[in-house]
Amino acid sequence: METTIFHVFRNTPLGREILLQSLYFCQQTSSSIAVYIPQHVRFLMYYENDVVQVDLDQSYLTDPETAKEHAIELALSMDVEPRFITPKNFTASTLPDIPVDFDFMCCPRSISDLSTKISLGHIGPKVRRIINSARFPILMPSALFKEWESIIVFFGGSDNSIKALKLGLRLSQITGVPLDMFTYSGGGGTQKNKEHFVEVLREAGLEDIVCGNEDQNAKVREWYFFDGGKFEHNLYRVPHNALAVLGAYGHGVVKDVLFGSTMEMIQTILPNTLLIAGPNYVVPHP
Question: Which GO terms describe its molecular function (predicted)?
Fold first, then answer.
């Protein structure tokens, strides 16, 4: 069954790089792409438990006469046939409703700040709301297009990291690129040994897939396991050309979504393209 990634196109050099990464994701995963070229700086996304109003910055309306032409040109250069979304419903005359029946969505770290204000360590509040509400993963690309040659899943033993691991396994199977895992066992007297994480995998029915046994080869190439050092220092071991997959959980009031400290540090330090499975992500049936 074909999957679809949703992309809001910004007709700027930064927007070009981000669209190229969505198109590369399509190439790798045999997905289609649904492109929205905004004519207004706001739109609504109706999720099951939340309504997110996305406020774009003015750069998303740059040179509308050439936006579609540029998007088509980029898509065809990557052998992807784009589908363009034209909103049918409007909550207000300048507030279109955008469907949410996609399998993935591409979001830069911020979609409502000028690109000159976007830093590696800043995820805008609207993007946080989308991650927290969406039933699909969010592709958060790096600033420059870069092909990824492996997938690395951050695994901390939580339910969300199990979902992220299943997502990584699925993508590795589809794309054929190798899959690695990254685990930091904690610090400050809270360390857990590797057997603890193996037990978590065992309970989830994933031990053989990750660790392998005499009858089954593991589907994880390497497990980067750290039981010492600072987490942020260990991130240096993450391959520079890997797609990083991680789970996020939301807490706090919905207007101020926060995420776990581990994810915050990853997105602050790691320049890799991220694929984030939020708390409402639903793992597809095999």
Answer: hydrolase activity
What tokens appear for 198 in the block? Answer: 């193996």
Q: Does residue 52 sit in helix, strand or coil?
A: strand
Determine the straight-line distance between the first and last CA of the chain, rounded to whole angstroms: 11
What's the pLDDT tens digit per position in 208-252?
A: 888 876 556 678 999 999 988 888 899 999 999 999 999 886 544
Sign of the dihedral through C-alpha 81, 176, 2, 267: negative
**Amino acid at residue number 26:** C
Which residue is associated with the tokens 């074909």? 2
Query: CATH 3.40.50.620 residue ranges in the chain?
Result: 4-140, 150-277
Q: Which of these CATH numbers, 3.40.50.620, 3.30.470.20, 1.20.1050.40, 3.30.360.10, describes 150-277?
A: 3.40.50.620
Residues, the chain: 286
Whether the CB-CB separation of 101 and 108 falls below 8 Å is answered with: no
116's tokens: 């000159």
Please give the CATH number for the structural domain made up of 4-140: 3.40.50.620
Q: Report the candidate in 223, 233, 235 with the shortest Cα–Cα distance to residue 178.
A: 223
Q: What is the CA radius of gyration of the chain?
A: 19
- The residues, ordered by sequence, that sit 6+ positions from 170 with a Cβ below 8 Å of its Cβ are 284
